[in-house]
Amino acid sequence: MAKKVVATLKKKGGIKYAKVIKAVKSAKTGAYTFKEEIVTEDQVKQKLA
Protein backbone atom coordinates (compact mmCIF):
# COMPACT_ATOMS: atom_id res chain seq x y z
CA MET A 1 0.00 0.00 0.00
CA ALA A 2 2.81 2.43 0.80
CA LYS A 3 4.27 1.98 -2.66
CA LYS A 4 0.96 2.94 -4.23
CA VAL A 5 0.68 6.11 -2.09
CA VAL A 6 4.23 7.22 -2.91
CA ALA A 7 3.77 6.46 -6.60
CA THR A 8 0.61 8.55 -6.86
CA LEU A 9 2.13 11.52 -5.04
CA LYS A 10 5.29 11.69 -7.18
CA LYS A 11 4.84 13.94 -10.17
CA LYS A 12 7.45 15.59 -12.35
CA GLY A 13 7.99 19.22 -11.39
CA GLY A 14 5.51 19.03 -8.53
CA ILE A 15 5.82 19.40 -4.79
CA LYS A 16 7.54 16.49 -3.05
CA TYR A 17 5.53 14.79 -0.31
CA ALA A 18 6.50 12.49 2.55
CA LYS A 19 4.47 10.14 4.70
CA VAL A 20 5.09 10.76 8.41
CA ILE A 21 4.25 7.99 10.89
CA LYS A 22 4.47 9.04 14.52
CA ALA A 23 4.03 6.84 17.63
CA VAL A 24 1.86 8.51 20.28
CA LYS A 25 1.61 7.14 23.83
CA SER A 26 -1.84 7.12 25.44
CA ALA A 27 -2.03 8.83 28.84
CA LYS A 28 -4.75 6.47 30.16
CA THR A 29 -3.52 3.02 29.13
CA GLY A 30 0.11 3.61 28.22
CA ALA A 31 -0.40 1.89 24.86
CA TYR A 32 1.06 3.32 21.69
CA THR A 33 -0.98 4.33 18.66
CA PHE A 34 0.33 5.45 15.31
CA LYS A 35 -0.69 8.64 13.51
CA GLU A 36 -0.06 8.86 9.77
CA GLU A 37 0.09 12.14 7.85
CA ILE A 38 1.13 13.09 4.35
CA VAL A 39 2.99 16.41 4.40
CA THR A 40 5.35 18.32 2.14
CA GLU A 41 9.05 17.57 2.61
CA ASP A 42 9.79 20.98 4.15
CA GLN A 43 7.27 20.32 6.97
CA VAL A 44 8.66 16.93 8.06
CA LYS A 45 10.99 18.23 10.79
CA GLN A 46 8.24 20.49 12.13
CA LYS A 47 5.77 17.58 12.45
CA LEU A 48 8.30 15.33 14.19
CA ALA A 49 9.35 17.98 16.74
Explain what the structure shows.
The chain has helices at 2-9, 44-48, and strands at 17-25, 32-40. The protein is α+β, with helices and mostly antiparallel strands. The protein has one domain. The protein has a two-stranded antiparallel sheet. The longest helix has 8 residues, at 2-9.
Rg for CA atoms: 14 Å
The major pleated sheet works out as: 2 strands, antiparallel
Helical content, roughly?
25-40%
Query: What is the tally of helical segments?
Result: 2
Strand content: 35-45%
Strand element count: 2
Task: Return the structural class.
Answer: alpha+beta
Which of globular, elongated, flat, extended, rod-shaped describes the shape?
elongated
The mean pLDDT is: 77
Unreliable runs: none
Protein name: DUF4295 domain-containing protein
Organism: Aureibacter tunicatorum
InterPro entries: DUF4295
List keywords for this structure.
27% helix; alpha+beta; 49 residues; two-stranded antiparallel sheet; 37% strand; elongated; 2 helices
Outline of this structure?
It comes from Aureibacter tunicatorum. The protein is an alpha+beta fold and 49 residues long.
